[in-house]
Amino acid sequence: VSALAFLTPGADAAELSPRSPLSRETAAAGGRIELRDGWQVTVSYGDRAGELKALREAVALVDSSQLGVVELQGGSRALDALPPLRPADRGEFDERGAHERARARHQAVRADDAWWCRLAPARAMVVSDASATARTRAALERESASGALDLTAAYAKLTLAGPLARDVLARFCALDLRDHVAPPGALRPGSIARTPGVVLREATSRYLLLFGAAYASYTWSVVADAVEQLGGRPAGIDALAEAAPLAVAEEPPDA
Amino acid sequence: VKRLAPQLGERIDRTQPLTFTFDHRPTEGFAGDTIASALLASGRVVLSRSFKYHRPRGELCGCGRCGNSLVEVDGAPGVRACGEPLRAGMRVRHQNAWPSLDFDAMRATDLLGGPFTPVGFYYKTFIRPRRLWPLYERVLRGAAGLGRLPRTQAERRWRTQYRRRHCDVVVIGGGLAGLGAAISAARLGADVVLCTEDVEPGGELLVEGAHERARALTAEAREAGVELLTRAPALGYFDGLVPVWQGDTLHQLRAQRHIVTTGAIEQPLVFAENDLPGVMLASGARRLAALYALAPSASAVVATLGDEGLEAALALHERGVRVAAVADLRADASGRPLAARLEGAGVRLLAGATVVRALGRGRLERVRLARVDGDGVALAGDAEEIECELLAISGGVQPASSLARQAGASAGVALAGAVAGHGAAELAERSGGLAGLEAAVALGHGGLAAERELSEQRAAFEDRAARDPDAPVATAPACAREHGYRERGVAHVGASRGGAARAFVDLDEDVTVKDVGQAVAEGFSSIELSKRYTTATMGPTQGRYSHAALARVLARETGASLDQIGATTARPPWTPVPMGVLAGRPHEPAKRSALHGRHRELGASVRWAGDWRRAYDYGDVDGEALAVQSDCGLIDVSTLGKLIVRGPDAGELLDRLYPNRLSNLKPGRIRYGVLCSDAGRITDDGTVCRLDEGSFYVTTTSSGAAAVEQWFSWWLADWQLDAWLTDVTQGLVAVNLAGPRAREVLQSVTELDCSPEAFSYLDAKHAEVAGIECLLLRIGFVGELGYEIHCAAPHGERLWDALVAAGAGAGIRPFGLEPQRILRLQKQHVLVGQDTDSESTPYGASMPWVVKLDKSQEFIGRFALELAAEREPRERLVGFTVPSEALPKEGAVVLDGGRAAGQVTSARRAPKLARVIGLAWVPARLAEEDARFQISDEGRTFDALVTTKPFYDPDGVALRS
């Protein structure tokens, strides 16, 4: 057993499958929880039509805490060895100003069912679909010189999707997420409801919020309140997959 | 007051009558009315009572800026009736008057209370006898309120929230200049937000008969993509952040360029009884007539210092108001084109005259006009009284430059329109357009064509300046300051200081000319001091209608020029705003362990511990503590900080950070350590466990986790070691299974050999517990045989449940933070931050063994600790017992020879020991077994005896068993 195995949520037996740090909140909101890809996941709230309507016409919040998070640290060369984390054009990358470099660095790439996020020259984060987490982690442990650390449990994750998603974010988050500043794939570390977190724009109207798992209950209360105020509601992952699916693969950011 | 025939561009919809109540009486208005316009139309002239003297007050500004129309609407106090749109069913009530608005008993303050309420009276009267101050305070607060807030949260109807909005350009002000700026910037592709105080953009166009032009420009702005925020005043300028209040929302606008087009504000005149209902600003009278078709039933008189009043008189006349006379202070007024138009319309113009007194009982009935001398002072014996219902006054305009002055000379802030001196419509629009163009081009919009256009527009402005040297054409902030006060350099005060009549400088605060004169006589002659002493300009209008008057009166009283008087500092908020709007939604970030729900289900009382919500106890503190010592207990310690340190230099990093050796720790072993500052003072403590050759698992105190992570990161970056640090605190659940039967319970849910031989004290093991992958640490903060079990947080509840189930036969009980503190105190285990402070060294804290000065490695605080090791500390942390069983409070004073010599840091009554125990800092010479000292605690003084060894299990037999 790896010395760091205790960090990884997972179990062979279904009854020991991990639960989201938001499971009590989603259950209290009427969520139906099912086993998916080894996790107890809130798949719906018993009103598929209502959830789809919110996702398409207003905004919905979805517990996405089953997504895997693997952190990579080490020299920038070690991270450059992983193709999705490699800058598209190294020469041009280096010639740009610090602000532009930071902006380019904070652009995630979607590949192999995961978002590959370069947080800093020597630090990266891979956010993977639950079905791909074990595979991704194993591959990273095998390929990365610095080794990978499973931080899936350290983060709670919420997806905000729908045309009003950015308006909801504006209620508790001061990040500049306008289209030309933060296009799909943009990764923005910052304050989420006065706690440290990361916002990843997964698509035009879809944002993934990653924040400390211990803040799960608090953050849910803030986000759900804002969502409700703008006519939205919680939705399950099934409705999210139908109404706002992620592109299979997106082009790397324009360097 | 009557409704005029339908006016072009009027805002009211006469086909939509609305009913609301004012002081419980049904009242009618129209859609589009404000509360004040509807009340005026219904015949009510008195809208409020003044702040201090409770004098009747009527409409002043007609645009939602003055403090004369504050009312309570649906329970919310301080709403400006002259700006609040009317809604059906509104419940409007007067405020600050008793028993009624028309008969206010507190008016006695005005009639009789003068000697008791001079300027600055709160520094002079109601001071003695001191014991009566609570009574004075209650009475004064009750008398001088501006409204009452609902007493309970449930009675408050509002919900407030923030909205953050980033954009390229913020335009503050929705007049011609603002619209011009927004349109020109947006047309080039800039992301523009425009905010205006009014219900619609357009500014003066709306009241000057150019409403169609205003609405066309508004439509053009929308089409260009400008976001328009209406009824949304900007509150201030905070280094690029502009908060804008709109209803229940506080917009936080962050832009790269700001264009201030806040216009200019017409100033009132100062004369005797200038607050009588019926006296209002000329611009307000125009606005009421144009937008709400309101006019006095009888005649009106206009008194002015400049052309604004003449324009207003002409506009009122053209809308059907009978203007009996116009008094213009300027002796040469008759020769002006506007004067000729007025006289052509049959309006009588009195050049070189002004109003000296308003007359009437409770409302304006007539005015007294007088000729003035060359200095603008009324001449005695040459007065004329004219009957009228409305006196429209115009004391010149003052640029609304407060926001611009708050911004100072910030880069990216431009002014346009009247606030920059570009008051004329054509000039305002062009200056706005130019400012918008400059902003967009500066942000890279529009390309070469836009740059060419910018050059052409600048050239056109320069050309205009060359042709008309008097026309101000610059748009820099400095320009606004230049034109702030000089443009109307007339120190006109038409009221004398003597006599019973009051001439108000500041209507908000009931500050009179006499008050300002008195303040000057008492030495408060600078405008800043006078402001503070008299409170002039500190009321709800924030000096909009009093700042110029105060400066003018001060100039007269001191003989200084207006330039010498200067201006008060512009501070936010520019518009008064409810505190609830500033507060926004109540967000109180709280960390909760993954077991929080379980604790709640078990009936735990939850309290703050740092930024965590923790289970304090489960209702039986002593019982929980005793269970740990007799059988077995389980506590959630997930709040401990947890760091993973990896990499080839991980051991080196830890050796440099801790005063003891950690790089020689064997995999699977644990060592306690303290962290020290450069000065050798204890900053945190915890354990370090070596997971494998390249990985360490570091725990910290619950409240110190973030600081330790920062401390490690700081030094890691500085030393550039090949090590990586990750905070995993929130991803892990940790529980402490402790007590004589802990091994038995643990063994029943794991295949790991838990025997003392196989799993000894300070060992770390990886194993499955109840099928969950865990890290087990054999350590014990509570002094019993104990295991800290760490696993991924999503499995936390299952781990907890499995242990509770397994321990059911062994008497297991959950225990909270308070029992834990008793148990650790029995062992004299130190709580960093509670038992230590910023001066505590490991030597003083009786932990010299934690410092290894013989290690070769340099480490943080080494120099200071070497010095500390050579000297006996002045104080030491020791355990104590209290023979009298008095329980001292934490922080109680330690006495040595009757003098304060230390303090108690922890004290509890230990149920197992049946005695009071504690930790205290005492003089070093008292740090001996059974030494006696005294504790002074809130009037009690009692003896205590030093105990240098743990109170319980001093040899650690139970802990290591």
SSE layout and pairings?
The complex is a heterodimer of chains A (255) and B (961).
Chain A: H1 23-28, E1 32-36, E2 39-44, H2 48-57, E3 60-63, E4 68-73, H3 76-80, H4 90-95, H5 98-105, E5 109-111, E6 114-120, E7 123-128, H6 133-143, E8 148-150, E9 155-161, H7 165-172, E10 187-192, E11 195-203, E12 206-212, H8 216-229, E13 233-234, H9 237-243
Parallel strand pairs in A: 3-13
Antiparallel strand pairs in A: 1-2, 3-9, 4-7, 4-8, 5-6, 6-7, 9-12, 10-11, 11-12
Helix pairs in contact in A: 2-9, 7-8
Chain B: E1 2-3, E2 13-22, E3 25-31, H1 35-41, E4 48-49, E5 56-57, E6 70-73, E7 76-80, E8 91-93, H2 108-111, H3 133-143, E9 161-172, H4 176-187, E10 192-195, H5 211-223, E11 227-229, E12 241-246, E13 249-260, E14 264-266, E15 279-281, H6 282-292, E16 294-295, E17 300-304, H7 307-318, E18 323-328, H8 337-344, E19 349-351, E20 353-359, E21 366-372, E22 378-387, E23 390-394, E24 397-399, H9 402-407, E25 413-415, H10 425-442, H11 447-467, H12 477-482, E26 504-506, E27 511-512, H13 513-521, H14 527-534, H15 547-558, H16 562-565, H17 579-583, E28 591-592, H18 596-601, E29 605-609, E30 612-617, H19 621-630, E31 632-636, E32 641-646, H20 650-657, E33 670-676, E34 682-692, E35 695-700, H21 705-719, E36 724-727, E37 732-738, H22 742-747, E38 764-769, E39 772-777, E40 786-792, H23 796-806, E41 812-814, H24 817-826, H25 862-870, E42 875-881, E43 893-896, E44 899-910, E45 915-923, E46 932-937, E47 940-947, H26 957-960
Parallel strand pairs in B: 2-8, 9-10, 9-13, 10-11, 13-25, 15-23, 17-18, 17-23, 18-19, 28-30, 31-41
Antiparallel strand pairs in B: 1-16, 2-3, 4-5, 6-7, 6-8, 12-13, 14-24, 20-21, 21-22, 26-27, 29-30, 31-37, 32-35, 32-36, 33-34, 34-35, 37-40, 38-39, 39-40, 42-45, 42-47, 43-44, 43-46, 44-45, 46-47
Helix pairs in contact in B: 4-5, 4-10, 6-7, 7-8, 10-11, 13-15, 19-24
Give the class of chain B from helix and strand content and strand pairing: alpha+beta
Radius of gyration of chain A: 18 Å
Q: Strands of the biggest beta sheet of chain A: in what spatial order?
A: 10-11-12-9-3-13
* Outline of chain A: globular
Q: Which class best fits the helix and strand makeup of chain A?
A: alpha+beta
Helix content of chain A: 25-40%
Sheet-strand content of chain B, in percent, reads 25-35%
Order of helices and strands of chain A: HEEHEEHHHEEEHEEHEEEHEH
Q: How much of the residues of chain A is beta strand, in percent? A: 25-35%
Oligomeric state of the chains? Answer: heterodimer
Q: Figure out the total of helices of chain A.
A: 9
The Cα radius of gyration of chain B reads 38 Å
The low-confidence parts of chain A are 89-93, 249-255
Greatest contact between two chains: A-B, 54 and 52 residues
How many strand units of chain B? 47
Mean pLDDT reading of chain B: 91
- The gross shape of chain B turns out to be elongated
Question: Roughly what percent helix of chain B?
Answer: 25-40%
